[in-house]
Every structure is written in C-alpha cells, then in structure tokens.
Specification:
2 strands, two-stranded antiparallel ribbon, single chain, 2 domains, elongated, mainly alpha
Length: 462
C-alpha cells in the first residue's frame, strides 16, 4: 500500500507539472495562431497591392464556384472518432475530445492558471493561493475553485496521504513485533510486570494505529471529495471548451477553404511589379510565425497527451483497489470520471495531429520557396542595377571621347597595330548595353516567376 501511495503521489506531481505545461502550450498555440493570421493578412495585402494596377476579370461564368460549405453537424459519441479519420490535411483539424457523461451543471468557464510552488498567477493576475488552505486566491471570479488550485490541493493531500500510510505501515510493523514479544512472554509465564508492560505497549500501538487509520480515511475522503466535486466538473468544462474551440476553428477553416476555391476561378493578369522591401519583410515574418505555429501546435498536442496520461495514471491507482483497502471507498462503478478520462485519452492518442503537422510543414515549405524566390529576385535586381550603372559610366566615357575626337576619330598608329579609341569604346558600350538588356530581361522574368508562384500557391490554397 505504501508503494501504491508513492506512485499516486508521483503521478499527481507529474499532473501538476503537466497542467502548467498544457496551460502554457495552449496559450502559446493561440498566440502563434493569431500572429500567423496577422502575418498572412499582411503578406496577402502586400501581394494584393501589386495587382491594383491591373484589371481583374470577373468569375468565369461557364464554371461556377463551389457552393459555400455547410457547418459540420454536432458530433455524436459514436461518430466522432470515425469522422476525424477522414478529415483532410487542409482542414488542419485535430479531433475534439469525446462528449463526456452528464455531470452537475457548471456555468462558469475554466480558468487555466500559470503556477509554481511559490507564486501562482493566472492570465488576469490573480493568485491561485495555498494549495491546501482556504486562501480566496484559489477561487475564480464566481467563487468556484480554479483548476490550478484543485490540482495542487490534490497533490498536497496525496503527499499527506503518503506520509500517513507510511507512518501507519511503520506502526503496523512495530505492533507485530511487540505482539510477538508479548505472546512469547505469555507462553513462558514470564514476570507479571514485564508482561503487563509489553501488553500496554501493544495496546498503545493499537490505539495509534486506529488514529492513523482514521487520519488515512479522513485524507482519502478529502481526496475523493475534491476529485468528484471539483476536478470532474472542471475536466468536463475543459473538454467542452476544447471541443468548441476545435469545432469553431474547423468552421473557420471551411470558410477559408471556400474563399481559396473561389480564387481558382479568377484569371489574374500577371503583374510586373517588383517585390518591395516591405513585401519581402512581410514574407519573412510570415515564415517566422508559421514556424512558431508549427512548433506550438506540436507542443500543444504533446502537452495534452502528457496531461491526460498523468491524470489517468493517477485515477487508475486511486480508483481500482486490490482487496480491502482503507484508502478509498469508491470503486470504478461509483465514479464516472475514469471512463470519461479514458475516452478522452483514447481520442487524443488517435488524433491525426501528424496529418495536421505535415499540413503546416507543407505550408512552411511553400512560404520558404517564396522567400527564396524573392531573394533570387533581389539578387537579380542588384545584378541588373550593377550592369546599368557600369553602362552609364562607360556611356559617359564614350560621350567624352566623342566630344573630344568627334564621332569618328583618326586612327592612332602604335607599332604594328592601329587603334581607334572611339570605336573600341563604342564596342565595349554596345557589349554592356546587350548585357544590361539581358540582365533586365532576367530580372523581369524573375519578377514574373515570383508573382506567379505566389498567386498560384494562393489559388491552390497552400
């Protein structure tokens, strides 16, 4: 029983840390998603501005756009796992957790609080307070306990239970030792005083054992009370919130997919506007935010798996007992929290998050390709500018020679060769002019490739 309580304490300690990591990962994911959306809007706006100088024809009347997608129906307990298995990567939709069994109504939203052993603060700057005391800082705005407070109080009670069970086990061993001594004294008809002394020691240990067992029962009752009256409703709210979040996100992705599908029916006139520095910076920013989005999504899924794994591990040890155990009075049939969490864990383990992750990575690959192409365009621009600058310099030198010698200079005899400085300079200028025209053509082609690559990827919904 001591080893079991030690394992329970270890799982609860992991749960406290996993809750903090889950909270942080969830906040970072939402923040990175918002930043990615802002960066994508800035990127698309910069690209759209380059098309304002060109006429955009209306939709092709012969090929109507696809109808607007209908929102997904409410998910049933049977269909939610199979529905997500056919979800495409464009939706980037990990499945929501399963619908939980009914519990007493809880009208307030769950507060996910940042926490540590010394100072604990939520997003609104309110302290979570003492994990086992009655500090009002561990209450939400409506007076209910926060999830941070509940989990840390459970951890404090688990530590207390472990010490009490450990002490009770030591008393039990001591009692067995003293009882064996007393039996030997009684069998040998030993001195009356020694026998009575040994009997009082045994009775004292029995009394201490009774007190220890009562303390264990009291602590176990508090753990059960917290688990059933606070933890379960909070988990219910959490799962409902996650389901609502992913469902809303899925609906928004459906709207975006519809808009992208409509772009396929627009025949854009290729733009010849070069990529501006602002546009290039917006593309780099989009790549950076998309990388953070991918990282935060992977961290979120890992943190959620770690959280539910620690939770179900603790519930298994606290709900399923072997033999008569004074630690827990409830069984699997008495509590619905375990099947609820077990179904949640199954949902998370079967979530197609790798498909979503690969979808984000594919998006990153496309953005990186645009970044590389924009860099190539800037590189070609520098080459073209350099050649034109050299052309202007040589053309100026040619004009100076023509002003000095006239358009046709007298041949200068030097040894066996005749030199015409104006003609030689003119030949060099013509070579540079042809090179400048070639570099300009390459630059314009590079601009066209950049614009086409960007628009094609936008129209394809990548």
């Amino acid at each position: 029983m001591v080893s079991r309580c030690k394992a329970r304490k270890r799982y609860m300690k992991q749960l406290v840390k996993a809750r903090q990591a889950f909270s942080a990962a969830h906040i970072m994911y939402l923040r990175s998603l918002r930043n990615t959306g802002s960066a994508l809007l800035q990127f698309a706006t910069a690209e759209t501005n380059l098309l304002h100088h060109h006429h955009l024809p209306p939709l092709n009347p012969t090929t109507p756009p696809p109808p607007f997608p209908t929102p997904p129906p409410p998910m049933s307990p049977i269909s939610w796992t199979t529905t997500t298995s056919t979800t495409t990567s464009s939706a980037i939709r990990p499945p929501p957790p399963p619908p939980p069994p009914p519990v007493p109504s809880a009208s307030t939203a769950l507060l996910w609080n940042w926490g540590s052993s010394s100072a604990r603060w939520n997003a609104f700057g309110k302290s979570c307070g003492d994990p086992i005391g009655n500090n009002v800082g561990g209450l939400a705005a409506d007076g209910n306990a926060t999830h941070c407070s509940t989990v840390e109080r459970l951890y404090a009670w688990e530590k207390k239970l472990y010490q009490e069970v450990k002490n009770a086990e030591q008393l039990k061993l001591e009692h067995e030792k003293k009882a064996a001594i007393l039996r030997k004294l009684e069998m040998k008809n030993a001195d009356y005083i020694k026998t009575e002394k040994a009997k009082k020691e045994v009775e004292k240990l029995e009394s201490q054992m009774m007190v220890a067992l009562q303390a264990i029962e009291t602590t176990s009752t508090e753990i059960i009370k917290l688990r059933e009256s606070e933890l379960y409703p909070q988990l219910f709210q959490l799962v409902m919130g996650l389901m609502s979040m992913w469902r809303s996100m899925y609906e928004f992705h459906q709207v975006q997919t519809h808009i992208v599908q409509q772009l396929k029916y627009l025949n854009f006139i290729p733009s010849i506007e070069p990529t501006s520095e602002i546009h290039r910076q917006s593309t780099l920013q989009l790549e950076l935010e998309a990388q953070q989005w991918h990282l935060s999504f992977c961290n979120l899924m890992k943190a959620q798996r770690d959280y539910i794994q620690s939770l179900t591990g603790w519930l298994r040890l606290s709900l399923f007992q072997v033999g008569n155990n004074p630690i827990n009075k409830t069984t699997k049939q008495d509590s619905t929290i375990y099947p609820f969490c077990e179904e949640w864990q199954l949902a998370i383990n079967n979530a197609p998050d790798k498909v979503a992750s690969e979808g984000i990575k594919s998006f990153l690959t496309v953005i990186h390709a645009i970044v590389v192409q924009q860099a190539e365009e800037q590189k070609q621009k520098r080459r073209s500018d350099s050649v034109f600058k050299e052309l202007e310099k040589k053309a100026g030198e040619l004009r100076s020679l023509e002003n000095k010698h006239g358009p046709y200079s007298i041949l200068e005899t030097s040894g066996d060769s005749n030199k015409d400085p104006v003609r030689e300079k003119r030949a060099k200028v013509e070579i540079l002019r042809a090179k400048a025209a070639d570099e300009k053509s390459k630059y314009e082609k590079s601009i066209g490739v950049t614009r086409a690559m960007t628009m094609n990827n936008l129209q394809m919904g990548r």
